[in-house]
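If you are new to this repository, start here. Below is one unmodified record pulled from the training split, so you can see the exact layout before writing a loader.
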Amino acid sequence: MPKKRNSYPTFIILLIGCFITFLLWSAMRAADSGPEVTDADYYSKGLRYTSTLLEKKAAAVLGWKVETRLKNRTLTFRLKDKKEIPVLDAKGTLNFFLPSTSASISLPLQEIGQGIYFVPLTSDMTGEMNARLEFEREGARINRQLLLNL
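And here is the target side for that same chain:
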């Protein structure tokens, strides 16, 4: 009767060879490609992540709601809490993301009445634009994404 061949040593040698090949491949990739960071400010954004979550939770507890209206190239926002009481003295900004570049425009909102904030739009702002609306007051913050067709 022929002896049964033991294939474990061959399997272990093949496994070690694959591991060494993968190790060499990953070392060459790490040495050649360099850092592939897409956001130069990633560290400070990461540090602000927890505080941003707390601000959003505070706004959610307060029940902030935003109504948006566009009339005659003027954007108007009405900010209310869960009891429908206007939110006064909030700091508001509207950030437009320009479609042709990676730049953005930040416009401050002006309060004109009881929880009513507005920003005039210039005549060169045309087409479909993405924007981010942000209100902040006393540690509470609310963000909304807008898609404007001007």
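Two things worth knowing about this chain: The first helix runs from residue 8 to 33. The beta strands are 65-71, 74-80, 91-97, 104-108, 110-113, 116-120, 128-137, 140-149.
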